[in-house]
Amino acid sequence: MNLEERAEYATQLKKRYNCCQAVLLALADQTNADPELLRQLGSGFGAGMGSMEATCGALVGAGMIAGLHVNGQGAVRYTKQISDLFEEKCGATHCKDLKGRDTGKVLCPCDECVRNAVLAYGEMMNLK
Question: Could you state, in order of their start, the residue ranges of all structural domains in the chain?
């Protein structure tokens, strides 16, 4: 599946899983990790880290996959680049800002955050 199809697949997974889990499962083949383990790892990142207080769960999932994909080598650099692309696409990286919790203005709905996290990962990691 190409990158666009993978991003769409992630949005379909979002119907059943939280944002982090949807990204982890859509990108599971980028790692040697068991998809069930990835699902479990992502279970605490629904509504972003800290229940909308911090980083979007979809972005967390993309960073986790990047770290696994590169066996930890350069993971911080890749995650920063993915985060920068995600912010360009979505307008923010914190869940509360993306959802407009304090402003009432939604910058990016969850499905689009999931889609954009997969796209940002794919663009950074040259996934076709």
Answer: 3-124
Rounded-to-integer distance, Cα 89 and Cα 12, Å: 19
Residues contacting residue 114 through CB under 8 Å, at least 6 positions apart: 7, 10, 11, 13, 14, 19, 22, 23, 26, 58
**94: β partners:** 55
Block residue for tokens 């689009």: 112
Give residue-wise pLDDT tens across range 27-74: 999 999 999 999 999 999 988 877 778 999 999 999 999 999 999 999
C-alpha distances in Å from residue 24, one per residue of 79, 100, 108, 128: 14, 24, 19, 17
Q: What angle do CA 7, 31, 91 make, to 5 degrees?
A: 40
Contact assessment for residue 42 and residue 24, using Cβ atoms and an 8 Å cutoff: yes
Q: How far apart are CA 50 and CA 55, in angstroms?
A: 8
- Candidates 66, 68, 69, 92; CA nearest to 77 is 66
